[in-house]
Write a structure and sequence with these properties.
Layout (H helix, E strand, L loop, with lengths): L8 H14 L4 H13 L3 H8 L8 H14 L3 H15 L6 H10 L3 H13 L21 H10 L2
Length: 155
């Protein structure tokens, strides 16, 4: 599992290939692979991998990754549609506010990104401690509220 996060790209590639051989229908493995392509800016590959996802348990993660992919590949309207869908679902089902903040950050809506990041901090989102690792938050890092949030989190 840890090799999926390794900086050794060859090790990561081999690990994902082995996992896909063992379980070719695994939505989780496909999501990891799509995430890896996302960080390599291979957006068409992300969209291809996620197009057939039907695992409801991963729906929020897939939606977040799709929205960010669409936004960064130039289709911000699709990203906003996915965000709208997540916000509607959030009224009846828990959606980690960090996921919504991520999409707002990629869309460069700083006010909404910080609104949802503060909600994530107040609700103890498990992902928020990794905020400094996610390049999706680059558009908001120059804002004073980013450092205030890091201080609030003890980061």
């Amino acid at each position: 599992y840890l090799s999926l996060f390794a900086k050794d790209e060859e090790l990561k590639k081999q690990t994902i290939q082995k996992l896909l051989i063992l379980n070719p229908d695994s939505s989780s493995i496909r999501l990891f692979l799509a995430g890896d392509y996302f960080y390599q800016e291979k957006y068409d590959d992300v969209l291809t991998i996620l197009s057939g996802n039907t695992d409801q348990g991963l729906e929020d993660g897939v939606s977040t990754l799709l929205a960010c992919t669409y936004a960064l590949s130039g289709n911000r309207d699709w990203a906003r549609e996915i965000l709208k869908h997540l916000l509607a679902r959030e009224k009846n089902k828990f959606i980690d506010p960090f996921r919504i903040a991520t999409i707002y950050a990629v869309l460069e809506n700083k006010d909404k990104a910080f609104e949802w990041l503060n909600k994530a901090a107040n609700e103890f989102s498990p992902r928020i401690i990794y905020i400094q690792c996610f390049p999706e938050f680059e558009p908001i890092r120059d804002d004073q509220r980013y450092n205030e949030l890091l201080n609030k989190l003890g980061l």
